[in-house]
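Checklist before submission:
- one chain only
- standard amino acids only
- sequence pasted in full

Submission:
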Amino acid sequence: MNGREGFAVWITGIPASGKSAITRELVTRMNSQGLSAAVLESDALRTILTPEPTFGSNERDHFYLQMAQLGAMLTRQGIPVIFDATANRRAYRDHARNLIPRFVEVFVSCTLDICRERDPKGIYAAAARGAASNVPGMQAVYEPPLAPEVAVDCRDTPPINAETIFTRIMALHYI
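Returned file contents:
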């Protein structure tokens, strides 16, 4: 342990809203201050926790509970954690909040039209072809946070959004 109390930042929004780009910038911003964080990115973790994902609701429930437990374990070791994950249901993020006392929820506000236009992983194109049936914000519900600590707009640049998040973390005295 490093003697510091860890904290977690959960960056949520519908697919292609810019969560990963903001996460990369936030990591860079933290590194510039001599801080490092564990990034729990849902696509990377899914290959470990659910190697043949179906993206069904029961699987998502199990996956996000495991993800929250992993993040809580890391923060108890004094490691800052950034969750880069849609977590389409509020209950997933609320569960993590209940496990992690120093928790910041970040909502990346983005319209479905902008996300469809970006579509870096082809998720929305697959849904349009009928090849994906559980896309959050389309066929699967996405429940935005009711009172996030930080809300950013996807039309702002990732560095601007990361700075907004970093400023809030500092204001909370987590760093």
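Reviewer check: Helices lie at 19-32, 42-49, 57-76, 90-99, 112-118, 123-129, 158-171.
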